[in-house]
Amino acid sequence: MKRTNLGEFEELVLLTVGILFDNAYSVAVAKELAAQSGRKVGISAVHPVLYRLEEKGFLSSRLGEASASRGGKRKRLFAITVAGKQALDQSMALRSKLREQIPSAAFQNL
Known about the structure:
Blueprint: H1 8-20, H2 26-37, H3 43-56, E1 59-66, E2 74-80, H4 82-100
Antiparallel strand pairs: 1-2
Helix pairs in contact: 1-2, 1-3, 2-3
Protein backbone atom coordinates (compact mmCIF):
# COMPACT_ATOMS: atom_id res chain seq x y z
CA MET A 1 0.00 0.00 0.00
CA LYS A 2 1.37 3.43 -0.96
CA ARG A 3 -0.14 6.41 0.86
CA THR A 4 -3.07 6.12 3.19
CA ASN A 5 -4.61 9.56 2.71
CA LEU A 6 -7.35 10.35 0.22
CA GLY A 7 -7.53 13.27 -2.18
CA GLU A 8 -10.94 14.84 -2.75
CA PHE A 9 -11.52 13.19 -6.12
CA GLU A 10 -10.25 9.86 -4.80
CA GLU A 11 -12.75 10.11 -1.95
CA LEU A 12 -15.59 10.86 -4.37
CA VAL A 13 -14.63 7.91 -6.59
CA LEU A 14 -14.39 5.61 -3.56
CA LEU A 15 -17.82 6.71 -2.36
CA THR A 16 -19.27 6.20 -5.84
CA VAL A 17 -17.86 2.67 -6.02
CA GLY A 18 -19.72 2.00 -2.77
CA ILE A 19 -22.95 3.41 -4.19
CA LEU A 20 -22.71 1.25 -7.31
CA PHE A 21 -21.72 -1.76 -5.21
CA ASP A 22 -21.82 -4.76 -7.56
CA ASN A 23 -21.86 -2.70 -10.77
CA ALA A 24 -18.85 -0.45 -10.13
CA TYR A 25 -16.80 -0.32 -13.32
CA SER A 26 -15.07 2.74 -14.73
CA VAL A 27 -17.81 3.97 -17.11
CA ALA A 28 -20.55 3.49 -14.52
CA VAL A 29 -18.47 5.27 -11.87
CA ALA A 30 -17.89 8.24 -14.18
CA LYS A 31 -21.61 8.48 -15.07
CA GLU A 32 -22.82 8.13 -11.48
CA LEU A 33 -20.29 10.61 -10.14
CA ALA A 34 -21.28 13.13 -12.81
CA ALA A 35 -24.97 12.64 -11.98
CA GLN A 36 -24.43 12.93 -8.22
CA SER A 37 -22.02 15.87 -8.28
CA GLY A 38 -23.21 17.88 -11.26
CA ARG A 39 -19.60 17.96 -12.46
CA LYS A 40 -18.28 16.87 -15.81
CA VAL A 41 -16.48 13.61 -15.09
CA GLY A 42 -14.64 11.81 -17.84
CA ILE A 43 -13.60 8.20 -17.95
CA SER A 44 -10.02 9.40 -18.47
CA ALA A 45 -10.15 11.01 -15.00
CA VAL A 46 -11.82 8.07 -13.24
CA HIS A 47 -9.83 5.19 -14.70
CA PRO A 48 -6.41 6.06 -13.20
CA VAL A 49 -7.99 6.91 -9.84
CA LEU A 50 -9.62 3.47 -9.64
CA TYR A 51 -6.25 1.81 -10.22
CA ARG A 52 -4.49 4.16 -7.78
CA LEU A 53 -7.07 3.35 -5.09
CA GLU A 54 -6.51 -0.33 -5.79
CA GLU A 55 -2.74 0.16 -5.40
CA LYS A 56 -3.35 1.87 -2.07
CA GLY A 57 -5.42 -1.13 -0.97
CA PHE A 58 -8.70 0.80 -0.76
CA LEU A 59 -10.32 -1.09 -3.66
CA SER A 60 -10.15 -4.60 -5.00
CA SER A 61 -11.15 -5.60 -8.52
CA ARG A 62 -12.25 -8.62 -10.47
CA LEU A 63 -13.19 -9.30 -14.07
CA GLY A 64 -16.89 -9.66 -14.76
CA GLU A 65 -18.47 -11.86 -17.37
CA ALA A 66 -17.94 -11.18 -21.06
CA SER A 67 -20.91 -9.63 -22.84
CA ALA A 68 -21.91 -9.57 -26.50
CA SER A 69 -22.79 -5.87 -26.25
CA ARG A 70 -19.14 -5.17 -25.40
CA GLY A 71 -17.79 -7.37 -28.19
CA GLY A 72 -16.95 -10.14 -25.74
CA LYS A 73 -14.88 -7.81 -23.58
CA ARG A 74 -15.12 -8.21 -19.80
CA LYS A 75 -15.66 -5.33 -17.36
CA ARG A 76 -13.28 -4.78 -14.44
CA LEU A 77 -15.53 -4.44 -11.41
CA PHE A 78 -14.32 -2.66 -8.28
CA ALA A 79 -15.27 -3.08 -4.63
CA ILE A 80 -14.35 -1.25 -1.43
CA THR A 81 -11.95 -3.10 0.87
CA VAL A 82 -11.75 -2.94 4.65
CA ALA A 83 -8.91 -0.42 4.29
CA GLY A 84 -11.09 1.64 1.93
CA LYS A 85 -13.93 1.74 4.45
CA GLN A 86 -11.49 2.77 7.17
CA ALA A 87 -10.10 5.55 4.95
CA LEU A 88 -13.64 6.84 4.30
CA ASP A 89 -14.50 6.66 8.00
CA GLN A 90 -11.32 8.58 8.94
CA SER A 91 -11.95 11.21 6.29
CA MET A 92 -15.55 11.71 7.40
CA ALA A 93 -14.53 11.90 11.06
CA LEU A 94 -11.86 14.51 10.33
CA ARG A 95 -14.22 16.64 8.23
CA SER A 96 -16.90 16.47 10.94
CA LYS A 97 -14.39 17.30 13.69
CA LEU A 98 -13.12 20.34 11.79
CA ARG A 99 -16.62 21.53 10.83
CA GLU A 100 -17.86 21.31 14.42
CA GLN A 101 -15.03 23.61 15.56
CA ILE A 102 -16.11 26.52 13.37
CA PRO A 103 -17.86 29.02 15.64
CA SER A 104 -21.36 30.01 14.53
CA ALA A 105 -20.20 33.64 14.53
CA ALA A 106 -18.03 32.79 11.52
CA PHE A 107 -21.22 32.33 9.49
CA GLN A 108 -23.32 35.24 10.82
CA ASN A 109 -22.52 37.72 8.06
CA LEU A 110 -22.87 35.25 5.21
